[in-house]
Amino acid sequence: MDAVSGFRTRLQAIREQLDGLDYTVLSAMSDVDIVDTMTEMRAISDRMIAGAAVVTDAAFRANATEHTTGTPLGDFLAAAEGRTPSQGIGVVKRASKLAHHPDVRDAALAGDVSPDHATAIGEELGKLPQGQLSGEQVDRAAGLFLDRAANTPPGQLRKAAQQILQEVAPEAAPSPGDEAARLAAQRSRAVKGRRLVWGSDGEGSTWFSGQLPDLEAQQVIGTLQAFGEKGRRAERDEAQALRTRRAEGDITDSQYLTARLALENREARSTAQRMADALIDMVGLLASLDKVPSAGGQAPRLVVTLNYQDLHDALEGKIAAGVVHGATGEIPVDAGSLRRMCCDAGILPVVLGGESQVMDMGQERRLVTGAIRRALELRDGGCIFPDCTVPANLCQAHHIIPWWDEGPTSLENLALLCRHHHALVEPDRYHSRDQWRIVVDPGTKIPRMVPPERLKKHLPQSSVEPAAGRTGTVSLGEDSARMANPGPGENSAQTALVA
Q: What number is the average pLDDT over the span 332-354?
């Protein structure tokens, strides 16, 4: 038996042994037996989690799911395991950290450290100044981290990073006596560690989590506190006004008590609630002053300095790349990127004469109007890729039948996709790849995603079958063929650059 077959056979044996466990015996166990069993199973679980992470990292490095299913690993895990795409990407990143150093990886596989410890160590090792450390110094740092893992929680290991760097490579660590260098290093780590994330709790609320460098955090906190104090002053002023109105006979005692009770409910807010309200007030003030920049409603303008035929050939894939003039100068782009950019952008056609002289600069033709964009956001609500959580204002408008394939700029031929999934869905010119695609219900005009055929065997059957009420969908290839060869009574759609 070769090594690969042996590995797979042992894995199957583990699955069979798990299937054979009878958990009803737990009721017959003594407390000591239950604790011992729990400890042993959790240790086995940690080793299996570490093993799964190592295999996941190997799949990522080999681009295995892209080769076999046409789907990046993060999206494959999301589709196959019922995760969101962001959760799938998180799994891949954690696996990469756990498997970052062979000694740490092997310790996790052997059960000497937990997967959380190994992930934290891998992350800290990745932050070391690699170009200034030899391989032996990195190995020694890994060993010191592993030694500390025995009696240090994963989160606390990060605090040991600078001490370990000072021990293994003092020449690469900031001098302890140099306060300026220490503060600069601390600031650098704080800036690198900044983050803000959020998600739904499933109960009607959205949670936020994050951290900011101290300087920026003080600005945010100070502003929130100012809004909070403004609220307290308003409550005091309102209470005084109520007393004055009652004294002057403008309101009855009953009206006063009703209004005072409502005011007391606001006065009873906790500090945390006041800060949450202050954040909402800050955002509301920005919106009222028209200070919120548009993220999705105003697409970028593309100035393409190609003659029409060259641009058309680039979009059809006949030319390998094109050039777009952006804010930072000329930007070379491949044909696929140019197609994606044209989905949700204004096109300013420039007619070139001999020696590339600008002969005429036509009026901008916006592919997606404001009205269509708003209708798209109302209909799709955000990226239509399964379980993707990117909101509508951060999505791009994608032509289901491509612009370069005579696809019309109409609500029925558009769908919202985030940047990541837009690149995954954008078809090649000949529709020859087995890839994710969009189909549209001819009755409801609602678009939905269809996975590649090679991915379907990895998905639950319910996610492969068409959604209820969306029968008779038309495939991308069928629509493209129909648009390219319109039948009697049908008008071929015109692109934005066609005169």
A: 54
Q: Are strands 437-440 and 447-450 parallel, antiparallel or unpaired?
A: antiparallel
pLDDT at residue number 357: 47
Do residue 182 and residue 83 come from a single domain? yes
Does residue 184 sit within a domain? yes
Read off the pLDDT of residues 462-479 as tens digits, 9 standing for 90 and up: 555 543 332 223 333 333
* Whether residue 89 sits in one domain with residue 42: yes
Least confident of 235-244, 295-304, 316-325: 295-304
Instruction: Please give, one letter per residue, the 3-state secondary structure of the chain.
Output: CCHHHHHHHHHHHHHHHHHCCCHHHHHHCCHHHHHHHHHHHHHHHHHHHHHHHHHHHHHHHCCHHHHHHCCCHHHHHHHHHCCCHHHHHHHHHHHHHHCCCHHHHHHHHHCCCCHHHHHHHHHHHHHCCHHHCCHHHHHHHHHHHHHHHCCCCHHHHHHHHHHHHHHHCCCCCCCCCCHHHHHHHHHHHHHHCCEEEEEECCCCCEEEEEECCHHHHHHHHHHHHHHHHHHHHHHHHHHHHHHHHHHCCCCCHHHHHHHHHHHHHHHCCCHHHHHHHHHHHHHHHHHHCCCCCCCCCCCCEEEECCCHHHHHHHHHCCCCEEEEEECCEEEEEEHHHHHHHHHCCEEEEEEECHHHCEEEECCCEECCCHHHHHHHHHHHCECCCCCCCCEHHHCEEEECCCHHHCCCCCHHHEEEECHHHHHHHCCCCCCCCCCCEEEECCCCCCEEEECCHHHHCCCCHHHHCCCCCCCCCECHHHHHHHHHCCCCCCCCCCCCCCC
- Asked whether the CA dihedral 383, 413, 426, 475 is positive or negative, the reply is positive
Would you say residue 405 lies in a domain?
Answer: yes
Task: Look at the block and give the residue holding tokens 């490095």.
Answer: 61
Q: What is the mean pLDDT of residues 30-59?
A: 96
Residues 384 and 334 in one domain: no
Token look-up 């009206």 returns 255
Are 477 and 462 found together in one domain?
A: yes
Q: Same domain for 231 and 269?
A: yes
Residues 325 and 375 in one domain: no
Query: Three-state secondary structure along 141-156?
Result: HHHHHHHHHCCCCHHH
Q: Are residues 134 and 39 in the same domain?
A: yes
pTM over 0.85: no
